[in-house]
Amino acid sequence: MTTSSSSSVAGGGAIYGLGMFGAWFYFWQQASGFWEHAYALFQGVFWPAYMVYDGFAALAR
């Protein structure tokens, strides 16, 4: 294993982590009840799937 491949993996994890915190912040603000806040935590973990889904939904219009 080379140094460059392990550093690129670490960079990807950092980007995913920053995206997760940003998604939690966004989805938490949109929630209004207890279960919506609980769902916001779920959405924050799987934010790339929601981003791709919304992108394809926008292309379909």
How many individual helices?
A: 3
Tally of structural domains = 1
Query: Structural class from helices and strands?
Result: mainly alpha
Q: What is the H-and-E element order? A: HHH
Gyration radius, in Å: 15 Å
Helix content: over 70%
Strand content: under 5%
Total strand segments: 0
For the report, how would you describe the main beta sheet?
Answer: none
Could you say which overall geometry the principal axes of the C-alpha atoms support?
flat
Low-confidence runs (pLDDT<50, min 5 residues)? none
What is the terminal separation in angstroms? 45 Å
Average pLDDT, rounded to a whole number, is 87
Give a description of the structure.
The protein is mainly alpha-helical and 61 residues long. The protein has one domain (3-60). 89% of the residues lie in helices and 0% in strands. It is built from three helices and no strands. Helix 1 runs antiparallel to helix 2. The chain is flat, with a radius of gyration of 15 Å. The mean pLDDT is 87.
Give a concise summary.
About 90% of the residues lie in helices and about 0% in strands. The chain is mostly helical.
Topology of this structure?
Elements: H1 3-30, H2 34-45, H3 47-60
Task: Give short descriptive properties of this protein.
flat, single chain, 61 residues, mainly alpha
